[in-house]
Structure formats: structure tokens, C-alpha cells
Amino acid sequence: MFFDVEKKIEEIKKKLHNSQDVASRIFDKNGQKIGMIFIKSMTNETLFSDNIYKPIKEYEGEITAEKLVNRIIINNVVEEIKEKDVLSKVLNGNVVILLGNENKFVSADIEEFIMRMPTEPPTSPVIRGPREGFTEDIKTNITLLRRRFYSEKLVMKDFTVGRYSQTKVCVTYLDGVASKDVVSEIEKKLKKIDIDGVIDAYYIGKYLEHYPKSLFKQIGNAEKPDIVAAKILEGRVAILVDGSPIVLTLPFIFFEDMQNSNDYYTSNHYATYIRIIRLFGYILSVVASGAYLALRLFHYNVIPTKFLITIADTTQAIPFTPFIEILFITLLFQILYEVSLRLPSYLGLATSIVGALILGDTGVNAGLISPPGVIVIALSKIAVYTLPEQAPQITILQVLFIFLGGCFGLYGVVAGIFYLVNYLNRIDSYGAPYLAPYSPRVEADLKDAMIKKSLVEMKHRPMSFDIKNKTRQK
Q: pLDDT, tens digit, for every residue of 7-57?
């Protein structure tokens, strides 16, 4: 028995709670009733009119599902669907055509979203190299990756995550290069995610980590297609999430964040020098505050006499203990940072001037804080951004080392470093040791670690994690 088109459309609208942006068209064609339903805010009205409505109205003869798919609608992705798939197609921006005389449904893809252009991301600027960046539209992001792989070996698998958001997730890798075990484990974890909605890629990131309670970053992320393409070529797996310009990559090792896309578009010697600076900045940002506090409280005899006299002269009028002073300055810098992030851009410069010059200078002149303390904390905070991807965990480590230095002196700082290195030695990301290629030492990967060799010398893909095809070039 054939269904009533009008009643069926009313049923669909009712399931969608008669939302104001759900539209429908019903008309008679040669004694045959045809219905269409779609969401106005997600479809291109011009495409709907020119590619679907007019061709159907102007077609001479009986309208059937087979004719719609193969003859009438020719400029769009068209397919016959089952009734159980109607809602999901409508919610994904498709027009669903109802043919009551056949008991059939046909879906045509004419979705259109408001989205920004693939501009250079503010977090990954380059002097040389590609300036494209991912957007919030997963189709655009897939296209940006496809343009870099004209190969049938590029695999893209779709998943849907989120009970209400029904967010599209795409797992991408190179067949014959990426490890099947890694791909399989990622897919299993994605299928197990049971959450009400996914707003950004970071929502699913925690579900993919092996150590979800760990302080340390365990998943790579990038906003540029050239970076993600390079990681895919190395055998990693990329995870794209609709609505997010961030692409996640696995496996991940610590020294990935020491690398930057600029390193591959400049000389090897300069890239090596900059990587050493980044490592030095990381160590300085973590340890400097705690070490300075330890020297002032417990090991002042190690400080050169002239510098010790300078510190004594500038700190003798300070009403706080060194420990309280350093904590206060750290808190002050963090407050200024948080404020500058959330203020309108035209107030950002004014806030920086007020915070850095007025508060800092006035605090020193008023005898609340000392110049050496301000310098050390400022240096620590600035050094954080030699590795901006590691900034959240570095900030926490700074505070922990301030407590270690303030309570136990240099012994506490050294013990903290040993514990930190030992802990990082014991964790991994999908079989990749976190501190590879130095611990364990992987000779082949040292060509693109702290010291960067020429691309011509990199004959093999990274050996630090499991991949199927290890040969990059012959």
C-alpha cells in the first residue's frame, strides 16, 4: 500500500518538533503527488531551485526513483534511501524527495554552510611555505588533504560521534604505510565513545589517550594541511572532526613539538639551532623559577658575591618571604595573561602597558616585589612560548617546581627533574616511546630530532613507532 505524501511529511516535521527552519514542498505532477523536505538554513536555495525543483517540474512523464537518480537530477549527489535514513539525511542538509506512488525516498545533497576561507592559522604562521589552514568544515578539510595525495592509497573512514550532535569524524591514513594495529585501536576507541555531543576535536582527544589522567600531552594536533600531510606520510593516523579546524594525529612523541613547519622550508643548520633554542626555552621555563627560589633560600653561597649583594640590596625592604614573593609574581603574570586573552583586541595593548609597566614598575618601587624576582618570572613566562603547544602543562610544572625549590632547595628541583624524566620514559603513545628517539635511542630517527639533516639524507620513515613501510626514498 502506498503512503500519503502529505501525512508522511507531517510525520517527519513532527519528529523534528516542527522547527521553524524545516521547509517542505508538495505538488502534483501528471496526477502523481511528489513531496520534498529540507532544512532551509543548511541548503542552497539557488541549487534547490535550479537543480532539483525545476528539473522535476519540467520533466515530461512519470517521476520514478530510478529516473530521479539517473536522469532528472544530474548536478548533485543523488541516491535512493530507506525510510529509516530520512531524518539523518535531512539533518545533514540534504533534500529528501518523497514518491508516494512507489513508496520510495530519494536524497539529493545540496547542503551549504556559512564558513570561513582556508586562511593561515594564527597559531602556525610561516615565513616560507604553504599558508592554507584548516576550517571548521570537514568537507573543506578533506579537500585540502586530498589535494596533497593524488593516490588511491589514502584511506578516509567516516564515523559519527555524539548522541545529539551526530558529529562527523574522519580517520585518515596511508594504506600500506600506517600500522593496521594502530588504525584498528583508534577505530575501536572512537566506536566506544558515548557522549551527548562533540563540539571540537579536543572533545574526543581524551578518549584516544592511553593515560587520560596524565598531565602531559599525548596527541599531536595541527591546523595546517601541509603539517598533517607530512605526518600521514610518516605513517601517522589523522583524525578530522567536523566543526573543528584542529586535526589530531597519532602516535605522538614529545619531540614533535620541538619541530615546526618553518624548519622544513629553511636551512638545516638554522633549523637545528632553533630547535636547540626551543629545548633550552622549555627547560628554562620549567626550572628557572624553582631554581632561583632554591638558591635564594638554601644555596645563596653558590650565587656570585656581586650578584648576591645586588639581590640583598633589592630585596631587603620586601615585606614577603621569597617563597610568597615568587608565588605572588607568578600569580600576577598569570592573571595578566588571562585578562589579555579575553579582552577585546583594541584593549589588549593598553592592558599590556598597564600590566607590564605600571603594575610591575609600581610594585618594585613600592617595595612589594623585587626586580630579580620579576626578571626571573618574566623570563620563565616568555620562554613558555618557545613551545606554545606545551604551554598548559609547562605552566603547571612551573608552579610544582616553585614548591619543590621553595621547600627542598636544589635537591627538590633535581629530584623533580629525575622523576619527570623517569615518568616520561615509562609512557608511550600507541607503541611510540614518549622520549624517542633519545630514550630509547633510535639511530635512524636522530636525523630529524634536535639535529635536523637534509631531506635527501632521510631515507627512512620514523622507526620510533610501528609502521608497515619504513622506506621513504630509495
A: 888 988 888 888 888 888 888 877 788 888 988 878 877 788 888 888 888
Q: Hey, what's the cell of 177?
A: 604505510
What's 164's DSSP letter? T
Cell 579546524 -> residue: 245
Measured CA to CA, the distance from residue 387 to residue 385 in angstroms comes to 5
Angle at 215 between CA 209 and CA 218, to 5 degrees: 35
Give the Cβ contact number of residue 208 at 10 Å: 21
Is the Cα dihedral 33, 34, 39, 44 positive or negative? negative
How is the beta sheet containing 220-222 ordered, strand by strand?
A: 154-161, 167-174, 237-241, 247-250, 220-222
CB of 38 closer than 8 Å to CB of 96: yes
List Cβ<8 Å contacts ≥24 apart for 85-93: 86/12, 87/12, 87/15, 87/16, 88/166, 90/12, 90/16, 90/22, 90/37, 90/38, 90/39, 91/16, 91/39, 91/166, 92/42, 93/38, 93/39, 93/42, 93/43
Tell me the one-letter amino acid at 209.
E
The model's pTM is 0.83
What pLDDT does 354 receive?
A: 58
